[in-house]
Amino acid sequence: MARTSRRARRNSPLHLPSAFDLFRPSKEIVINNIWIFGPLYAVPFIFWIHSWIWSPLPNQPVHWWQNSRSFSSGWPGGPLPTYSTFLVVGFSLMWFVIIAALGTIAQIMSQAAQLEAAEGKHLDFHNLWKVVKELGWRMLGLYIVVGLIVVVGLFLLIIPGLIMIRRYFLAPYVMLDQKVGIREAMDRSAALSKINTGSIWGILGVMLLIGMLNIIPIIGGLASFGFGALYSVAPALRYQQLKKLA
């Protein structure tokens, strides 16, 4: 009887390790290069802490940092005075700009570090910064274009959006590795993902499971961040595997 499954046999050259199997090598790479990944991953962690502090208290019109019972401090509870509202708005806009700039730089450097570590290269902040200066605007454009395509796909019919995530999941690594433009990076990512679509869905599935830890208050968020950091090199490892098959 003819084989109907598109999943590669174990003895097939298209067979790749499962997404769960990539956790251990990813964890070892992150730990062995913690002096690089630690500071880079500290950036989104600080943003997460800031977001949590500014989140409203349940059933109260104040934020966590405005309530003296939330922290052991003398800050009085209750909303800020009206005369300081413009300071809060100005600070919020400034903070948004800082998050956008530092977050994008940290993202580019993190993915460059993941790619170089997956290739067995020595990591250095100087080299990572050179990547930002060379490809920063191009990578930002890629993030925006792919993000818009995915959002539109999810908004319209959901399924097309999920397919777009799979198709362009490796696009940042393609651009960093091959120094191509936005359209070329997306096309090559789509081509690589078609070699073994299950290998991409597997990575996305594990990342989804890690993200679901966030449903547990506070501890879940910390656990999700920790496991996510340890698994962060898995996409770059998968990219290297698919590139060899191609």
Descriptive notes:
This protein has 246 residues and is mostly helical. 68% of the residues lie in helices and 0% in strands. It is built from 10 helices and no strands. The longest helix has 34 residues. The N terminus is likely disordered.
Shape: globular
Helix content: 55-70%
* Mean of pLDDT: 82
Counting DSSP E segments of at least 2 residues, the number of strands comes to 0
User: Per DSSP, what share of the residues sits in E-state strands of 2 or more residues?
Assistant: under 5%
Give the ordered list of helices and strands: HHHHHHHHHH
Structural class designation: mainly alpha
- Write down the domain tally: 1
Per DSSP, the total helix count is: 10
Key traits:
mainly alpha, disordered N terminus, 246 residues
TL;DR?
The protein has ten helices and no strands.
SSE diagram, text form:
Elements (H helix, E strand, L loop, with lengths): L22 H10 L1 H20 L31 H34 L6 H32 L2 H10 L2 H8 L3 H14 L1 H15 L7 H12 L3 H12 L1
Helix pairs in contact: 1-2, 2-3, 3-4, 3-6, 3-10, 4-5, 4-6, 4-7, 6-7
